[in-house]
Design goal:
28% helix, Trna Endonuclease, Chain: A, domain 1, alpha+beta, 2 helices, 100 residues, four-stranded mixed β-sheet
């Protein structure tokens, strides 16, 4: 097994591989919120194109029952590369990326 540079442990939930336990727990929380009717549905690993053919992938895009859409990234550690890409995405698209 490959060690992650930030000590995140790949985790399996509902047959889906996640990069960390924290991301898997958030996915499980979203499933509960969907069953409760607070979230209509959600998407995983949503790509956003940025300059130079680079893609930024948000962990989740949540479509809530109140009509709002939330873009969420589950972070344990913010790298300088992540911070720069997040700023580029938010400058190019009319969104704010929430971090948990």
């Amino acid at each position: 097994m490959i060690k992650h540079k930030f000590r995140a442990k790949q985790t399996l939930s509902n047959g889906i591989k996640f990069q960390s336990k924290k991301e898997a727990r958030y996915y499980e929380r979203l499933n509960l919120l969907q069953k409760a009717g607070e979230i209509i549905f959600f998407l995983r690993q949503v790509p956003f194109d940025i300059a130079g053919g680079v893609k930024y992938r948000a962990d989740f895009m949540e479509f809530r029952s109140d009509g709002t859409v939330h873009i969420v990234d589950v972070k344990g550690f913010k790298t300088p590369e992540y911070i720069a890409r997040k700023k580029m995405v938010e400058a190019l698209y009319p969104i704010i990326i929430e971090e948990v």
